Amino acid sequence: xxxxxxxxxxxxxxxxxxxxxxxxxxxxxxxxxxxxxxxxxxxxxxxxxxxxxxxxxxxxxxxxxxxxxxxxxxxxxxxxxxxxxxxxxxxxxxxxxxxxxxxxxxxxxxxxxxxxxxxxxxxxxxxxxxxxxxxxxxxxxxxxxxxxxxxxxxxxxxxxxxxxxxxxxxxxxxxxxxxxxxxxxxxxxxxxxxxxxxxxxxxxxxxxxxxxxxxxxxxxxxxxxxxxxxxxxxxxxxxxxxxx
Length: 244
What we know:
Layout: H1 15-41, H2 51-55, H3 61-75, H4 78-105, H5 110-138, H6 142-165, H7 170-179, H8 202-206, H9 214-218, H10 226-243
Helix pairs in contact: 1-3, 1-5, 3-4, 4-5
């Protein structure tokens, strides 16, 4: 889990920082490897003791891997950097632990055992920072596109917030609400100032569209059309008498 083979491409603002950290970790990796190789070569008999698991288990990987990583950076190849990360994983899992066991068994100098531990820890940093750099090599336009998308989202958020809040801050909206006083419950506005809710009386609602309720027909006092009906009835009776 400490050796990271995948990562998210860095943003434009943090791109230089990731490149700088990776350069530092990669330089330390080459430095620690050279220090231990000098110890193996002096004297040469160390090659056949603790130098054997370092050099010949997964043959030559401890020397080939730093050179391969250097070429990967020079050519900007994401594929080469991924294979370099896989080499680091193999060394941390196999070569370095066996070398430490051999040095402890032969009672080697504690300083060089500590160098191997530093190599293992540094491989974790190389893998972590290298994942960011490798993803940038695989998708170099990500940083620019991410910056543009951030600007677009900021503009959208600012526009929507100004639409819903009227361009006022939370404190200004609260002050305006306090100054407006108590709400008028007798008049309700829906949608805009011109759209008002009209309160319709029950009797007027019953008489809408020329429909008269049964209650009004049975009660002539409350029936607004009762006078007209009496006049019509009197007129019809007078017409009947004249014809007779």
